[in-house]
Design goal:
The complex is a heterodimer of chains A (about 300) and B (about 150). By secondary structure, chain A is of the alpha/beta class. Chain A has helices at about 15-35, 55-65, 90-95, 110-120, 135-150, 165-175, 195-200, 235-245, 285-290, 290-300; strands at about 45-50, 70-75, 100-105, 125-130, 155-160, 180-185, 205-210, 220-225, 260-265. The chains are: A alpha/beta (about 300), B alpha+beta (about 150). The interface of A and B includes residues 88, 89 and 118 of A.
Chain lengths: ~300, ~150
């Protein structure tokens, strides 16, 4: 299959066929991601332009590149760069694209990745653009679901901040391509925007909503937890109440399906009790690891290397 | 009635009559055309004129001026049913309805303060246009403008 797009900006750019292609390639590369080194990207340079903090995304891209035999250029701290002199992102991209074979970018403004693609002579991979998109997170989520559960006929509950959470919007969009049965679980003030829900239904997803986490636990294949951010609540007691209602402990796991898995994009605060970590349902650390094969797959694709 | 009619639609020799403007939008049309107090030509504006088709409509007549494409595009965003009559030597030389473009560039400011198009970056705002009702979707941040579009015109 020939990939139509050089840049990886938004999940909305992908067809189901393209997603499957990426997941298949990640599966091929997974053994290498678990420990090994190849020369697939020897001589290639990946630039990491992170204007905002990142642990998993940045480090897993670095790991992916190193496992494939390539090298990594890091922007370093903002203070040590021309950003403090007021250089625009557009100029930075024009310059860095002459130093590298691809750029991974995280920037606080929505639409910054798309703009970067307009100025770049090499592929741009969006590592998060404000409250906009984070496509590589969605792809690793899909990989986790396919590997640890199944993408077809999936019953999934997505829990937490469904109003502002960018990962959730991208994930539900992608799941709609697979006709998933999606239950949205959130407090009313963090409900998914109506427009997104209408969009999902129009694309073939079955979508329902509830405030009550416990009522869905025994009828799902995947429980996808997300962080509820304190700053979304003007009243701290309200936050405590909500955060408490959306916390998973081992007591919740009594009647769940045997093969139900729990996912979380991390970092977690206290949505998942640490005692759950050792249960057979926990998959969030595996999920985090699957970021490496997914990013290896994407790097080989955007750099035009066959695997 | 005839005297009233004459007052409202006194013919002009050369210029443009913008008819069937959505009632209440005439002032915004003037804003789009940058017609302010110091404008030198004769401008006539009628608001809330009874209309069989629309119930009520606004009309703007400008003497000795024909509109540019960008101005027509902006008018289409706030009043998609408006018609343009080009008058030359008292005759209607051309008459057509404004047409909504599929995409507008550099005409509208995104409502999202965190959008890359609202920063110092060298980027022009771009919106996809949807019809019935008019909706503008920012191609950068995907925010949608549905209401008070006139307030966001550049």
């Amino acid at each position: 299959m020939r990939f139509k797009r050089r840049h990886i900006i938004s999940m909305k750019d992908f067809t189901r066929e393209e997603i499957d292609y990426i997941l298949d390639r990640a599966a091929k590369l997974e053994p290498l991601a678990r420990g090994g080194r190849s020369d697939l990207l020897a001589g290639k340079i990946l630039a990491l332009l992170f204007y905002e903090p990142s642990t998993r995304t940045r480090m897993s891209f670095e790991t992916a590149m190193l496992r494939l035999g390539g090298s990594v250029l890091n922007l370093g701290s903002k203070e040590a760069t021309s950003i403090v002199k007021g250089e625009t992102l557009a100029d930075m991209i024009r310059v860095v694209s002459t130093y590298s074979d691809a750029i991974v970018q995280r920037h606080p403004s929505e639409g910054s990745a798309l703009m970067a693609a307009e100025f770049s002579s090499v592929p741009i991979i969006n590592g998060g653009d404000g409250a906009g998109h984070h496509p590589t997170q969605t792809l690793l989520d899909l990989y986790t679901i396919r590997k640890e559960s199944h993408l077809d006929n999936l019953d999934i509950a997505i829990v937490g901040d469904l109003k502002y959470g960018r990962t959730v919007h991208s994930l539900t969009y992608a799941l709609s391509l697979y006709g998933a049965n999606i239950t949205l679980v959130s407090p009313p003030q963090l409900n998914m925007p109506d427009q997104i829900k209408a969009d999902l239904k129009a694309r073939g997803a079955r979508v329902s909503e509830t405030e009550n986490l416990e009522e869905v636990l025994d009828s799902i294949d995947v429980l996808y937890m997300t962080r509820i951010q304190k700053e979304r609540f003007p009243d701290p007691t309200e936050y405590k109440k909500v955060a408490g209602a959306y916390k998973i402990t081992t007591e919740h796991l009594g009647n769940v399906r045997d093969n139900m898995i729990i996912m979380h994009p991390l970092p977690r605060v206290n949505e998942i009790d640490s005692f759950v970590d050792t249960s057979s349902h926990a998959r969030y650390f595996e999920q985090s690891f699957y970021g490496v094969p997914i990013r290896m797959a994407l790097l080989t694709i955007v750099m035009g290397v066959e695997v | 009635m005839s005297a009233e009619k004459e007052l409202r639609v006194r013919p002009i020799r050369n210029g443009t009559v913008i008819d069937r403007i959505l009632a209440g939008q005439a002032m915004n049309v003037l804003k789009i055309l940058r017609i302010k107090g110091a404008y030198s030509e004769v401008v006539t504006m009628a608001m809330n004129v009874p209309s069989k088709a629309l119930g009520q409509k606004d009309i703007v007549k400008i003497e000795n001026r024909e509109l540019e494409e960008k101005e027509l595009d902006k008018i289409s965003l706030i009043s998609p049913g408006a018609t343009i009559n080009i008058i030359r030597d008292f005759e209607v030389a051309d008459k057509y309805q404004v047409e909504l473009p599929e995409m507008v560039e550099g005409m509208v400011k995104c409502i999202n303060p965190n959008c890359i198009s609202n920063t110092k970056e060298p980027v022009t705002s771009k919106f996809e246009v949807k019809k019935d009702p008019v909706q503008l979707r920012c191609i950068y941040c995907e925010n949608i403008i549905m209401e008070n579009i006139a307030e966001h015109l550049l």
